[in-house]
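Hey team,

Sharing the Response regulator receiver domain-containing protein run so nobody has to redo it. Sequence (122 residues) first:
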Amino acid sequence: MTHNDCVLIVEDEFLIAELLTDMVEDMGLTVCACAATAEDATALAGQHRPRIVLMDVRLSGEKDGIDAALAIHHQVGSKVVFITGSQEAETVARIHQDHPAAILFKPITFGQLRQTIETISA
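Structure output:
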């Protein structure tokens, strides 16, 4: 299964998506697309086949980021880094249903994101 050396950002808050895009590009990586819904995320992942997906848990629409991550992991096999503001036990347990490469809790720093991406890319 071949992956493109790019990052898909899934975040429904525009300013956070822009911040994550800047962080990823500052690391010398390419952002292939941004999505605000689980449906768009799944479609864009199928189209771009990203190596890494930065996934917010709470998204616009009926499905959430965990639903999208499960579909993307099954279809594309991308490494998913969850970025969430929720530390509720139920949410974290649902995240672990998928095989998360990492979980980061908002607010995140550039250093946290860089270290996480370097670790899962090694």
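The chain has one domain: 4-110.

Ping me if you want the raw files.
A.
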